[in-house]
Amino acid sequence: MIPIPSLKLNWFSLLTGSGSSATDSNPEVQATSWERGNREPVLILIIGSRRGIANIIQSLFRLNFAQIHEWSKPQVDPNSGRLMSILTKYIRFD
């Protein structure tokens, strides 16, 4: 078995952008074609069985996270061969 080096990541800095990354030094990389003004799409992906996907979607609906119809129909993930469903949420930057 090949040992995998452990990575200590500061997830908060990755999510908030407060840490440095390769895109920080290159402003051309920061602005992508899918950004529109102060909005950015964020993809949420669920991979699992049909029953598992439906359960998570219903749970997120009960938490008022997303409407059920906003999720894609389950489709096969080309990498794993498992079912997946995708939701696009738009976040606004002020």
How are the elements arranged and paired?
Blueprint lengths: L10 H6 L10 H4 L8 E10 L1 H13 L12 E2 L6 E10 L2
Number of contiguous helices: 3
C-alpha end-to-end distance: 48 Å
Strand content: 15-25%
Radius of gyration: 17 Å
**Secondary-structure-derived class:** alpha+beta
**Average residue-wise pLDDT:** 75
Order the strands across the largest sheet as they lie in space. 1-3-2
**Biggest sheet, open or closed, and with what strands and sense?**
3 strands, antiparallel
Outline of this structure?
This protein is an alpha+beta fold and 94 residues long.
Task: Give me some keywords for this one.
24% helix; 94 residues; 3 strands; flat; alpha+beta; disordered N terminus; 23% strand
Please explain how this structure is put together.
There is one protein chain. With 94 residues, this protein is of the alpha+beta class. Helices cover 24% and strands 23% of the residues. It has a domain at 32-92. The chain is built from three helices and three strands. The chain has a three-stranded antiparallel β-sheet with strand order 1-3-2. A hairpin with a 6-residue loop joins strand 2 and strand 3 (83-92). The longest helix has 13 residues, at 50-62. The relative contact order is 0.18. The model is unreliable at 1-16 and 19-29 (pLDDT under 50).
